[in-house]
Amino acid sequence: MDHFIYRDGALYAEDVPVAEIAAAVGTPFYVYSTATLLRHFRLFDEALAGLDHLVCYAMKAASNQAILKTLAQAGAGMDVVSQGEYLRAKAAGVSGDKIVFSGVGKTAEEIRTALTGGIRQFNVESEPEMAAINAVALDLGVVAPITIRVNPDVDAKTHAKIATGKSENKFGIPISRARDVYALAASMKGLDVIGIDVHIGSQLTELEPFRLAYQKVAELTETLRADGHDIRRLDLGGGLGIPYESSNTAPPLPIDYGAMVKESLGHLNVEIEIEPGRLIAGNSGIMVSKVIYVKQGEDRQFLILDGAMNDLIRPAMYEAHHDIIPVIEAEPGMQQTAYDIVGPVCESGDTFAKGRHMAPLKADELVAFRSAGAYGAVMSSEYNSRPLIPEVLVNGDQFAVIRKRPTFDEMINRDTIPEWL
User: Fold this and answer.
1) For residues 5 and 33, what is the distance between their CA atoms, to the nearest angstrom?
2) Taking a C-beta distance cutoff of 8 angstroms, is the pair 182, 223 a contact?
3) Does the global pTM surpass 0.90?
4) Quick check: 248 pLDDT over 90?
5) Residue 289's beta-bridge partner residues?
């Protein structure tokens, strides 16, 4: 469920007409719904009721400070994967004891920043990283809390580019080597080994891969405790998918996921962390674009938009589907036209959909890309010297620009010309 609905034939974001936002900020732009963000966070929080737990939003999905502050005020922690994300979370008012630092390539500078500013834990991905954290912690005279990410070799049955839990993936330590790695960690004076981390991928549409991974984690917990480790926290990652296509069967609900977690791990008396990103942010945002031209090709019609692959790269990068709807609702029974929906970037890959059936559209009409709140704005670029597009947050009948569109002068003036030119 989201809060982007038609009222009297016009698309609204909560209580604000989308066309009103377009008139104020220009197109293309992203718009997010506060009510949807909070609803999805609370669904996860309530699903784990009865367990000691923390929902840490995976802010790589959408990291605008207004989004972070909205979720933090509701009680969310943050899962970060870079120094920039860590500092962004801190700037949004998130305390260090609610920030989890993930990622395979943490640098000494990033580790130092987090240990100085406060950190809930590092999710360690390798022995060299473990040694680096230990060295920085000893230099600072502190002890770094860590979990170790294990790779359970479970097929998440998702897109190859977002699967992370198979043996061929770069993430984590093979679960078969976990006992040796935990023993090594316990020997390092700058580390406090508090738990286990696992994350098998993104956009999962079934619970069974989670269940298989968590069963392996439960067995490992018992083994490590028998070895003398105080395993008191399990970080289960994120990955629960969202329905990108309205015609498809919906993925499992957070309440079903929570019941599976309790069934698989509830007997271990541990604190549970989960790190949803896509399910909180995905359906909380749309991208709005304007039709520039309708072009007749040899055997098809092209709908050429002012939004492009640099604004929303998921279709080009992942062959991802987004439902695309008109901002002014089509009349009932109107005959549909098949369009190839494309952007103006000079790449054939700048294609959002092929043969997509929609009611006929004309130049200057608006369309909305549904489920664009996750991995949309954060993955955008200025390719072709196209400005980053605005982000807008709606709250009831109010809206605010939370990232403005840079001017061309601002873009160009970021360049520095060497003195010899």
Assistant:
1) 11
2) no
3) yes
4) no
5) 367
pLDDT over 70 (residue 169) = no
User: Quick check: 196 and 179 in contact, CB under 8 A?
Assistant: no
Question: Angle 276-204-209 (CA atoms, 0-180°, nearest 5)?
Answer: 105
What span, in angstroms and rounded, lies between the C-alpha atoms of 167 and 232?
26
- Could you check whether the bond before residue 145 is cis, i.e. omega within 30 degrees of 0? no
Residue 315, phi then psi, degrees to nearest 5: -60, -40
Which of these is catalytic: 346, 397, 416, 421?
Answer: 346
Give the pLDDT confidence score for residue 161 in this predicted structure.
Answer: 43
Task: Please classify residue 233 by burial: count the beta carbons closer than 10 Å to its beta carbon, then call 0-12 exposed, 13-18 middle and 19+ buried.
Answer: buried
Contacts with 53 (C-beta within 8 Å, 6 or more apart), sequence order: 45, 271, 272, 273, 274
Residue 124, Ramachandran bin (φ over 0: left; ψ between -120 and 50: alpha; else beta): beta
pLDDT for position 251? 82
- Is residue 108 over pLDDT 70? yes
pLDDT, tens digit, for every residue of 319-349? 999 999 999 998 888 899 999 999 999 999 9
∠ CA(356), CA(360), CA(363), 5° rounding?
Answer: 105
SS (H, E, C) 281-322: HHHHEEEEEEEEEEEECCCCEEEEECCCCCCCCHHHHHCCCC
| Secondary structure (DSSP) of 56-125 | EEETTS---HHHHHHHHHTT-EEEE-SHHHHHHHHHTT--GGGEEE--S---HHHHHHHHHH--SEEEE-
CA angle 40, 45, 50 (to 5 degrees): 155
Based on the residue annotation, tell me whether 346 is a catalytic residue of this protein: yes
Q: Which domains does the chain have, with CATH numbers?
A: 4-31+282-412 (2.40.37.10), 103-274 (3.20.20.10)
Tokens found for residue 321: 């589907």
What is the maximum span of the chain, computed from C-alpha positions, in angstroms?
A: 71
Residue corresponding to tokens 């709250």: 395
pLDDT band at 156 (very low <50, low <70, confident <90, very high): low
Asked whether the beta carbons of 31 and 286 are under 8 A apart, the reply is: yes
Give me 287's structure tokens: 């991208």
